[in-house]
Amino acid sequence: MLSAIYNHLFLPAGFTAVLFFLSLWLPAAAEGAKVRIKDICSFQDRQEVALLGYGLVVGLDGTGDGTGTQFTSQSMANMMERLGVTVDQRKLKVKNVAAVMVTARLSSQQTAGSTIDVTVSSIGDASSLQGGTLLSTPLSTPSGVVRATAQGAVSIGGFNVQVDEANKIVNNYTLVGRVPGGGTVTDPLAPTPGSDREFILSLHDPDMTTAHRTAQVINIKYGTVAYPTDGGAVRIVIPDSLMYPTLRSKFMSDIGHLRIVPDNVARVVINERTGTIVAGEHVTIAPVAVAHGTITVDIRSRPIISQPQPFSEGETVITQEPSITVNQEQARVVNLKGSVYLKDVAGALNKIGATPRDIIAIFQALKQAGALRAELVIL
Hints:
This protein is of the alpha+beta class and 379 residues long.
């Protein structure tokens, strides 16, 4: 079935850069268009904050920061002093150490002791973080509250082998790495006040029709517990019978698996750099006539050589004789009836042999003429 749809919608050979993704046209595909609520919404009671820290990566094979990176030397001296070792910062060589910024994200659904992935990024003049180990680093929120600590071996997913400046092999980017599960939550986020009584479903693509359909499906199963507040949110009141934490979690999980048919705004997205056109459902065209024609101008120069008379002491002169040819292709006009879908437009444009660039120009002209009943997005 889908192959038949694609064979009908793709432009002919040479025009594969243009794709009309309109499989939702067919009524038979309506059931297949249903999606899970969890795929188009997110639970707004789930808070998430960014964590940031400054740390040191040690154990590098001479690829760390140079002596000119003062903050690395100072950090190493301060750390050694905390461990009871006094060193002279001016004589400290840190070629096996690199200063890094450590970043992570903490969710309100993560409890104390949970592990999170962290990312380390070099901020000095190190050439690679390969083989390094991140030392214990506190991670804090923008307000300065320490929520987690990070430590562990750094994985960069590549390598950097260098013999001299002229001979080196680099695979992937070696100045940014990850420590999978390297962060440990020490101070989890407090739950949102009132989250034990209600929560908000936030739509990824706000639409009033989709919000009402979401609330309707939930209310059919659980009674009147869902209230669409606007096109982007649905408020869910947790029934008293499901207030126990375990039942509440099951209630939220079950809601996420309910299926609805989301409504979409008529939209055409055009990428002029690649000549790609993607059109959504409900895109229609008002009554309009499209004329397509091209003018080709061919300009050539033919050299003309003029020789002087014998024994006249003249010079050979070379001139250019221009030749200009203009070929104007006869305009081809296609009449489109009112309220046709984009599949009809695709077929009509195929008949006149329009290229992807031509189709982009035609769609832009249709929008300017007020005939394209859709939002036009140009990337």
